[in-house]
Amino acid sequence: MDGVDVFDILFLSILAIVFGVAYIITRLILVLLDIHRKRKTLSYGKNKRKSSIKTMIVVGSGGHTTEMLRLLEHVSNTYSPRFYIMADTDKMSEEKITKFEKQEPQGKYLICKIPRSREVKQSYLSTVISTIYSLLKCVPLVFSIRPDLFEQVLCNGPGTCIPVCLLAFLLRVVGIKQTTVIFVESVCRVKTLSLSGRLLYYFADHVLVQWPALQNTYPLAAYVGRLV
Question: Hey, how many other C-beta atoms are within 10 angstroms of the C-beta on 97?
């Protein structure tokens, strides 16, 4: 292989990288603009597809799961099938979900487990590592049920939701799947968003809060009153 061939390969490689980076940046800007538009118009209640909304629901141990199931009591069976995502160390949520689905049968559901992205009192530095690990574990999970099987991610604060929502956002940026991320802040958060809420505030399609003081602090959030 002569010098010209090497130069041509190097040039084409650099050109491909530049176009790839430009594409990702453009898609990222377009997705963020679309998210901002949705929040400004509060279009979270306007879904054109009424037959079924295939939904991933992220639950967390303790109060997060309880609040989420109370919220699901007030939605129709349009949200089906449902894929419940929970931490593999969560010993309580699976039992609560199974009991809920038996009492409130609303179609098909599946419980999936991923590594917990952050334990209670875990340091922020180690949280970054565990979140990346959890994100990597989410990839085969999502593709095992196929990206076309979920149109919406619904979560309310557990750290487990971060890798799931981030993956949904990345799939949207690269143009693989258009997925709506809806974050409902816990009713116990009156004045400040949770850590998950502060992170998702920048890339979730809708951030719903249950106290007006939160909307005053975070103007792109939507105040919807008490949901649970």
Answer: 21
Tell me the pTM.
0.83
Provide the CATH number for the domain around residue 51: 3.40.50.2000
Token pair recorded at residue 182: 């809806």
2 located within any domain = no
Selection from 188, 159, 160, 139 nearest residue 84 by Cα: 160
Mean pLDDT of the region 106-115: 85
Q: Which residues contact 160 (CB under 8 A, 6 or more apart)?
A: 58, 59, 60, 85, 86, 87, 90, 114, 116, 117, 134
With vertex at residue 192, the alpha carbon angle to CA 202 and CA 115, rounded to the nearest 5 degrees, is 60
Q: Which residues of 51-60 are buried (b: 16+ CB within 10 A; e: fewer)?
A: eebbbbbbbb
Q: Which residue has the tokens 């309880």?
A: 66
Quote the domain boundaries for residue 79: 42-223
Which residues, at least 6 apart from 152, have a Cβ–Cβ distance to it below 8 Å?
53, 54, 55, 56, 79, 179, 180, 181, 182
Of 49-53, 88-92, 162-166, minimum mean pLDDT range = 49-53
CA 174 to chain centre: 16
Average pLDDT, the chain: 83
8-33 pLDDT tens trace: 788 788 888 999 889 899 999 999 98
Looking at the domain assignment, is residue 214 inside a domain?
Answer: yes
